[in-house]
Design goal:
With 287 residues, this protein is of the alpha/beta class. The chain has 10 helices and 10 strands. The chain has a 7-stranded mixed beta sheet with strand order 4-3-2-5-6-10-7, sandwiched between helices. The chain has a 3-stranded mixed beta sheet with strand order 1-8-9, with helices on one face. Strand 3, helix 4 and strand 4 form a beta-alpha-beta unit. It is globular, with a radius of gyration of 19 Å.
Length: 287
């Protein structure tokens, strides 16, 4: 299994939680890799490779796409919620610098492609796999947003194509739950902010059904969150967006203080932070 302990990251000392570019960098350099075991498990199960046309919804800064493209897949990555993360994905996958370079038909965009986007004058080849790796099940309303996005994306895929949804596992199997309770407690001081909520067992199946998809198998994957030190843990966790409501209700210093306290049981003698987690994925099928 791919190691997920972040051994080094480029410091952005003094950056504000409100700085979207710094937060996107923290996500890219620290947090995004925590879900690599999930990406690996799904790609292996679906045999993602040279014959795959992948549509990635919420592609973030593109790490899952790097893995798919390295296996030979063609892809379209869609990141509608964070222009800063999308910019990093373009830099990582389409840039002229050293390192990985995606094949020429790779696309990165902030919106779903239209039916004629890939082949002007002809019907585009349908996608063979659709993924939505951003885990749901912690923020009120995230299931409704995902259902709408999947319903809009399904017609772009071939009939019976697999659509992958991801969510947090049972709270008792996710050490990060204790830290997220801090976010929920602080956010509760501001009734106007987005509410955190506990994960529900059948969230993924319910989203799939609302999107007109047919559930067809699921799995669980261990995705421990490992950080080189407390500072990296704070930056990584706050880059997820799950603490935005808490920051809005109090302030960043208060959130960082209480999250640091909640992380204390997971700090090891060498200063690293290690939190075991389990994530669940659902494979659904397009009609």
């Amino acid at each position: 299994m791919t190691p997920v302990l972040v051994r080094q990251h480029l410091a952005h000392a003094g950056t504000s939680h409100a700085d979207p570019v710094a937060r996107a960098r923290d996500w890219s350099e620290i947090q995004e890799r925590m879900l690599v075991p999930l990406y690996e498990a799904v790609y292996e199960r679906l045999d993602v490779g040279p014959g795959t046309r992948l549509l990635s919804l919420g592609c973030g800064s593109g790490l899952a796409l790097v893995m798919a493209a390295s296996a030979g897949a063609a892809f379209t990555g869609v990141e509608p919620s964070s222009p800063a993360r999308l910019a990093l994905a373009r830099e990582r996958l389409l840039g002229d610098g050293p390192g990985f370079r995606a094949r020429g038909d790779a696309r990165l965009t902030d919106r779903l492609p239209t039916a004629d986007a890939d082949r002007p004058g002809g019907r585009p080849a349908p996608y063979t796999v659709v993924t939505a790796f951003e885990p749901i099940g912690r923020v009120a309303g995230d299931t409704e947003e995902l259902a709408e996005l999947l319903a809009a994306a399904a017609p772009l895929a071939r009939r019976g194509a697999p659509v992958v949804l991801a969510g947090w596992g049972p709270p008792e199997r996710c050490a990060t739950t204790a830290v997220l309770r801090v976010a929920a407690k602080l956010a509760d001081q501001d009734r106007g902010t987005v509410r955190l909520r506990p994960a529900v067992r059948d969230d993924l199946e319910e989203v799939a059904r609302r999107a007109g998809l047919r559930p067809d198998g699921s799995g669980r994957v261990a995705c421990p969150f490992g950080y080189a030190d407390l500072d990296s843990a704070l930056k990584g966790l706050l880059s997820t967006g799950l603490f935005d409501a808490a920051v809005a209700a109090t302030d960043q210093a208060q959130v960082e203080k209480e999250v640091a306290e909640a992380l204390h049981p997971y700090r090891r003698p060498d200063g690293t932070v290690w939190m075991p987690n389990v994530f669940r994925y659902l494979i659904a099928r397009t009609p």
